[in-house]
Write a structure and sequence with these properties.
The complex is a heterodimer of chains A (533) and B (62). With 533 residues, chain A is an all-alpha fold. Chain A is 75% helix and 2% strand. Chain A is built from 23 helices and 2 strands. In chain A, helix 7 runs antiparallel to helix 8, helix 8 runs antiparallel to helix 18 and helix 9 crosses helix 17. Chain B is built from 1 helix and no strands. The chains are: A mainly alpha (533), B mainly alpha (62).
Amino acid sequence: MAIAPVDWLILGAGFMFFLAWAVYLNFKTKSVDDYLVSGRKIRMWLGMGAGIGGEIGLISIAAMCEQGYRNGFAFVIGNLISLCIMMPLFGIFGFGIERFRATRAVSVPEYIERRFSRNLRIVVGMINCFAGVLQMCIFPIGGAIFVRRLIGLPDATAILGANIPTDWVLMFILLLCPLIFTTLGGYTTLMVTNFFQGILVMGTMTWLCVHVVSQSVEPAGFVNGLQHVWSGMEKTLGMTGVNPFVNDPKSYGIQFFIFLNVMTILLQFSYGPYLQQYAAMDKPRTVSRSYLLSAIFGFGRSLIIFAIGVAALSAMGMAMPESVAAKGVTPTEWGSYATPHYLAQIGVPAVLMGFLLLALLFADVAVTDKYILSWSTSIVNDCIHPFRKTTASPKQHIRAVRMTTLALCVIFFLFGMIYKPGMTIWSFMWLTANLIGGSGIVVLLGMYWRGAKTVGAYACVAICVLVPIADVIARQVLAHMDTGATLPWTPEQTGLYAYLAGGLAMIVLSLFSSEESKYWDLGQTVRELNKLP
Amino acid sequence: MFAFIQFDQDLGLWSPFTFWTVLISVILTLGFTVVIFFGGVGDLRYLLRSLGKSDDDNADQR
């Protein structure tokens, strides 16, 4: 796909705009709190705008397009039901998330040490960091593959006489940019640049969606295009394109949505990037109000991106073109390949292309920044500092976070060099998030139940980590035996029942434990903090 | 006015319901983007003024 000079100009000017903010904020950032949680001065609108930017990463765009292409708009109904549960729970009552902000902890393990024990903090910190880093490994390579296919770049690029895979070159750029922005100003830079990125990506993806829909018919037109895309989806997917619960192997199914909702609830109390964002807000009520508006807003935001994948489905159907199959693309890969392939076919006009490249680059920067800073902070705070004999100075603390960030970038690059897609991007992300969810039960019971004890917490974390891992290993063993046998339940069922068993184990063992509880009333603290101006 | 799009009758109400949910959500989201932008700029000014000042939010310190 051709990139016009004006597109490069937009990309360059946009990059300089974001860089100027980062340099300025780096100058303004003074303390460790400023660097890690923006001095806890983030108010609702800025937090929400930044939240949008921080949730629409390049990898999420690729994953949403993939889901739109594979399942149409079937996700809509399920997501609507989720909204009806999550919005009152977190957005109105602030269940758990307001209390977490009131703990003043920056991470889950930090709270766990105060509520349970130091050793449990280290165990949870290591498990969460491992799962979080593993999940992030797919970000740069997944993003690089999406951009290469969108622009239509060759598989290899000649640099200094050597043929280097283009994905590696793009991956290097996609890691270098977040590294620059994370180093400059930390979380404060992240919040501000993510805010502008959120607005940019919304505008650009809407423009792209209108363009794609309009171009789907001859002569081009939006309303006719809308009819064409919708009818195409109905014809190709039938009921599975609009009903997620229909009895069809291609459908999501009810078990999937129950698992998704339980995990979404638990991740609110265990997923580092979410909690670091909550910790940065000025008071507990800001956290719940911000959640409420973000939930409403996030729903429509995802649908705009889904629609681009649906347009690709409508135009090309489900079958992989022979020209693509000839390149060695597998049916698993085709789902993520389809949308950029379609965009490359219809073309993206000049100016929109410039904004699209800028939005995609900073979609990567926004999410990678947010996640990498969160996991680096967690690694330093929960996996390194507990073993230090002396307390680190603020300067040493920030330096340690920066060095960890750099080390993680190297790990992601090495992972990308050997990565081969074996499942959908969403499945990979949910699988790794599943390992983190168990600590959400521990935090939740710790915040609300005086009787929650350390021994119960250990049992819960162990069950929620070991059972899903055992499930994955069993599936791999069965797959390698080539007998065609599979486990009689789905991975989602394993995750769901592991959470249930973990929660039960924690309750039962806590009841039998004679340990003195370290519970304190966070509800009172929430009320006091919410009274502050 | 609302009949500018035709749905597959075999899919019953699932298809029109999904279509209108998508369309209304997207329109609300776009309107909300504008609100967030202006609200966020105000909050950004507050953040820039506050950075580097001491933190008086100690009510939750045990």
